[in-house]
Amino acid sequence: MAFIENCLPENISSERLKEIKEEVNLLVVELEVFKKLEAFSVSTHLITDNGNSDVCGYFLILLNIDQQDVQVWSYKEKYRFQATEDYKNFEKKYKDTKEVDIVLVNAKSIKTLKKAYPNYFADSKEFLDKLKEVLAKEI
């Protein structure tokens, strides 16, 4: 924000600022930041309770970043071993695929899942908008 509002500390030279911006640009490309965060944003909107508030124990979440697709399987507590096996199978299947993230988490409902893991479900649109603004700003 300080960069956008031209309120940087006086000890940062414009040359150093250009270097930092170049580093950020390289990392954004290398890490595919926009692609991944847009996919995570899609997951936030697709994962809902569907009225089953307290029937689950585990959630297996598969996020395909390339396809911006998320799949969620819920397991009652008594099926935790099946959830673990399914997770292991997905890990093996996608071990060489960096575009797929797989997580297995324990939660009673989607609501408690989102509460327990707010960063995973945070809407990244505002962050992406600010990042685009920073990357587009001339020094």
Describe it for me?
By secondary structure, this protein is α+β, with helices and mostly antiparallel strands. Helix content is 49%, strand content 15%. It is built from six helices and three strands; from the N terminus they run H-H-E-E-H-E-H-H-H. Strands 2-1-3 form a three-stranded antiparallel β-sheet, sandwiched between helices. A hairpin with a 4-residue loop joins strand 1 and strand 2. The protein is elongated and about 60 Å long. The model has no long low-confidence stretch (mean pLDDT 80).
Biggest β-sheet, characterized?
A: 3 strands, antiparallel
Globular, elongated, flat, extended or rod-shaped: what is the shape? elongated
Poorly predicted ranges (pLDDT <50, ≥5 residues)? none
How much is the radius of gyration in Å?
Answer: 19 Å
The beta-strand count equals 3
End-to-end gap: 14 Å
* Mean residue pLDDT: 80
- Walk across the major sheet and give the strand order: 2-1-3
Beta strand %: 15-25%
Summarize the amount of helix as a percent range: 40-55%
Q: How is the quaternary structure best described?
A: single chain
Put simply, the count of helices is 6
Structural class: alpha+beta
- Strand/helix succession: HHEEHEHHH
